[in-house]
Structures are given as C-alpha cells and as structure tokens.
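Troubleshooting: if your tokenizer reports a length mismatch, compare your output against this known-good record of 132 residues.
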Amino acid sequence: MKATIDSIVFDKKVSTKYGEMCRFIVNYNGKKGTFLAKEREQSKFKAGAENEFTETERKYDGIVYYNIAAIKSGGSNYSRNVKKEQSKYSGFAMSYSKDLVVAGKIEYEQLYIEAKGMLDWMVEQDKLLANG
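Known-good structure output:
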C-alpha cells in the first residue's frame, strides 16, 4: 500500500531473534503502526512523504495494531512482473525481425532498428493498458 506517513517516533529497543532492534511508532491515514529497524537513525520511511509498504493487522486485548514493512528493493510484485514480461519482448522483437530478414522483407542492416521499434511499441502498449 502507499500512504503519507504523518510522524515517525522512536519508541524503544526490543530483543528479537535477529538481535536487538529499534521499534518505531508511525501515524498514517488515521492509523497507528509500528516497524523495526536495526539503527535508531532509520532510513526505511520518511515522515511527511508518501511511502510504499505492506501492512499487517493484528489484534491484542481487543485493540487493533498495525505492523508495517518496507517493500524490498526489488519493488512491488506488480512492477517485477511487468519487468519480467517486458524482458521477454526483446527476444520476441529480435525473433520477428530475423523472420523479416529471412523472408526478404527487410535488409540485415535493418534488423536491430526493426527489433528496437517493435520492442518500444510493445512497452508503450503496456503503459497504455496499465493507465486505463
């Protein structure tokens, strides 16, 4: 999810199975959440800015708490899937361009130009489909 974090406040140090961690309390979208960081000068989230994170809801004594975690550096699953799909396009584009050379429709010297044009077109179509 994406949300603007209103405030980030250091709460306390806690012991975990990964060693001692710093717990922070965050306020966002009218909710109060927590997250852990190795250092007191954390760099996972920025107050006053839109942040992307996963949110896990838990209940304790009838009170709802939220744990948040930063998205790993690889980006969200959606963006990874888009990149994976788009990486296939270069192979398709080169293969189709090669077919045009073999069929005598274009000269060998045009192979890379034609492949680049096809690749650019496929990526542009992805953007158009994603936006609506």
